[in-house]
Write a structure and sequence with these properties.
The complex is a heterodimer. By secondary structure, chain A is α+β, with helices and mostly antiparallel strands. Chain A has 4 helices and 5 strands; from the N terminus they run H-E-E-H-E-E-E-H-H. Chain A has a 5-stranded antiparallel β-sheet, with helices on both faces. The termini of chain A are far apart. By secondary structure, chain B is an alpha/beta fold. Chain B has a domain of 192 residues: P-loop containing nucleotide triphosphate hydrolases (Rossmann fold, 3-Layer(aba) Sandwich). In chain B, 31% of the residues are buried. The chains are: A alpha+beta, B alpha/beta.
């Protein structure tokens, strides 16, 4: 279990977004999300405005985690691809690297085969983009000095009965 | 393991409510969801059984707004308390930033509290976390019930290290916000101390989108500017058919026949040295041919136009007039 936080840099996000846009265009999907296994959304592309992406990320990560446990019970290390079929919209999940999940939401304009093909191809690109961060050096960055104090004041405002 | 997304300028923390079954974890979340202003909360998602027991987790996203340029978010999770659901309970702990242990204060539940706490330490250990290194607080719930253990008893049993603790009645909301305030502060304090993430220039999503939208300039195809067609006023028009017998009537220059223009077009067999084979290409060629032989595009020097005076058949009136004239001619 990796305890380090997942670090993604701005230029990587840019590359990832471009790759996701390529996937959406190629596979004619509705939208694509990259989700951390911890349930955090890393980035998204496509028509995501009507979606509650943070909840979606948390639930999909949960779904993926439970599938991993199922895999373990049947003697597989991990199921790398997951597919949810609906009446109109479908979701395709692919494991990318060790810690991220590529989520593609698509409808009947395209086919599962196209999505699978592009997801595999773009997934490899994404994995190589994400692996670059490991090689780079880390710099220490502090949040502003008054951050904790400001946060406390804000919490007092919000969390009042 | 607070997630900091510099691209979106977002800081997300995961807080998990842990505890034995029926201790009031989901009730805590429901109260928070009910009381928090709408702009700060998301939807409360509950993965529960038909009998309203948490099966996997409850999830409540909180957005406390922008602090020092970072949109700060908390994700509140609860675990299924029942012993039976340990497999899913463990999954929720992945990437946890802060823990609230919700203990049931009833004397009869002491054993369950203890067992759940041990289970927490065990599950964390399996992920490689150490319970001592995570921000954690205790909430002694159900303080309004009879037959409850004193805080002192609970402290000695569950919290020998003296971590912060709160008494609560979650159904009425007592102590719920105090607990939440305390854990969020602890998590943020820890974040500030631990943060070791490289910061680079912010990249706005809009910038990326802009790039996507930017298409390469199309290849410049030289469109030969058509010379303006000047249709000269009919020069030398002599309509004076009645006035004189001249048979000259000048007209606008007549376009050369389509056939002559067509003669200049390469034969349909090849275009640019390339053989035309497909039907599509042939159709294209036909289209091109049509365009080329359009009479309106034909231009000729002005002077040439002037000269083109084509004799026209004489009008009927003139003809009749001449015929009558011949008839009445004196012999």
């Amino acid at each position: 279990m990796n305890q380090n936080p997942l670090i993604i840099y701005e230029d990587q996000i840019e590359k990832i977004d471009q790759a996701l846009a390529r996937l959406i265009k190629g596979a004619e999907a509705k939208c694509a999300l990259l989700v951390d296994k911890d349930g955090y959304l890393i980035t998204r592309q496509g028509f995501t405005h009507s979606l509650d992406t943070s909840a979606l990320a948390a639930l999909l990560a949960g779904s993926f985690a439970s599938t991993k446990e199922i895999a373990r019970l049947v003697g597989e290390p991990e199921f790398s691809v997951l597919f949810h079929q609906g009446k109109k919209d479908h979701i395709h999940l692919t494991l990318v690297g060790e810690r991220t999940i590529l989520v593609v939401i698509f409808d009947d304009r395209t086919t599962i085969g196209m999505v699978r093909l592009y997801a595999r191809e773009i997934g490899e690109d994404l994995a190589s983009i994400l692996s670059q961060s490991k090689k780079e050096t880390k710099k220490v960055v502090e949040l502003g000095e008054g951050f904790a104090q400001s946060a406390e004041n804000r919490l007092d405002d919000i969390f009042k009965d | 393991m607070v997630s900091i997304n510099y691209a979106f300028r977002e800081l997300s923390c995961k807080i998990v409510f842990y505890g034995p079954g029926l201790s009031g974890k989901t009730t805590n979340l429901r109260y928070v969801h009910k009381k928090i202003p709408a702009q700060s909360k998301g939807e409360l998602i509950s993965l529960a059984t038909d009998t309203d027991r948490t099966l996997y987790f409850d999830f409540l996203p909180l957005n406390i707004g922008e602090i020092h340029g970072f949109t700060t978010k908390f994700q509140l999770y609860t675990v299924p308390g029942q012993v039976y659901y340990n497999a899913t309970r463990k999954l929720v702990l992945r990437g946890v930033d802060g823990l609230v242990f919700v203990a049931d204060s009833q004397r009869s539940k002491m054993e369950e509290n203890k067992e759940s706490l041990n289970n927490l330490a065990q599950n964390l250990a399996e992920y490689g976390y150490e319970i001592d290194h995570l921000p954690m607080i205790f909430q002694y719930n159900k303080r309004d019930l009879p037959e409850i253990a004193t805080v002192q008893e609970l402290e000695t049993l569950l919290n020998p290290k003296g971590l912060p603790h709160f008494e609560a009645v979650a159904v009425k909301g007592e102590g719920v916000f105090d607990t939440l305030k305390c854990i969020t502060k602890l998590v943020l304090d820890k974040t500030k101390g631990e943060e070791k993430i490289e910061k680079k220039e912010e990249v706005s999503i809009a910038k990326v989108k802009e790039k996507e939208m930017h298409f390469p300039p199309k290849e410049k195809t030289e469109i030969p500017s058509k010379p303006l067609i000047v249709v000269p006023e009919p020069v030398g028009v002599e309509i004076a058919a009645q006035a004189s017998y001249k048979k000259k009537v000048s007209r606008e220059p007549v376009a050369p026949s389509p056939e002559s223009a067509f003669a200049q077009i390469p034969s349909p067999v090849s275009v640019n040295g390339k053989k035309i084979e497909s039907k599509k290409e042939k159709r294209l060629f036909e289209h091109k041919k049509e365009e080329m032989i359009k009479p309106k595009e034909i231009t000729r020097p002005y002077s040439e136009k002037r000269k083109t005076i084509i004799p026209v058949p004489e009008p009927r009136e003139i003809f009749l007039w001449r015929w009558i004239k011949n008839l009445i001619k004196p012999r």
